[in-house]
Amino acid sequence: MKRKRIKKNLLFFSVLYLVVGLVLLQSVFSTFYNIYLKTKEKRNFEKQLIELKEKEEELNGTVTKLQNPDYVARYAREKYLYSKDGEIIIRIPEE
User: Fold this and answer.
1) How many domains does the chain have?
2) Distance between CA 49 and CA 57 in Å, rounded?
3) Are 77 and 83 in contact (CB under 8 A)?
4) pTM value?
5) Is the residue at 64 inside a domain?
6) Is residue 57 part of a domain?
7) 94 within some domain
8) Each residue of 51-65: pLDDT tens digit?
9) Which residues contact 72 (CB under 8 A, 6 or more apart)?
10) Which domain holds residue 15?
């Protein structure tokens, strides 16, 4: 009688420890997976930041150039085919 009770208790606690262990293991794996996803997301954001900083530098350079009236005049002539009086524009296609 006492042996059956001991075996029941042993079985109960073994199953209980197994369930608690599995829950803890699942929690640890879930946490590590979330850390992995956040690290991956951080790397993507860092790449985006670098690209945006490069774009910002390019745009700042364009703003600086557009403050020069000679550059604006030359840009308008090249891009929009504006010409000075008596000037003829011949456009050569790019290959």
Assistant:
1) 1
2) 12
3) yes
4) 0.58
5) yes
6) yes
7) no
8) 999 999 999 999 999
9) 66
10) 2-80
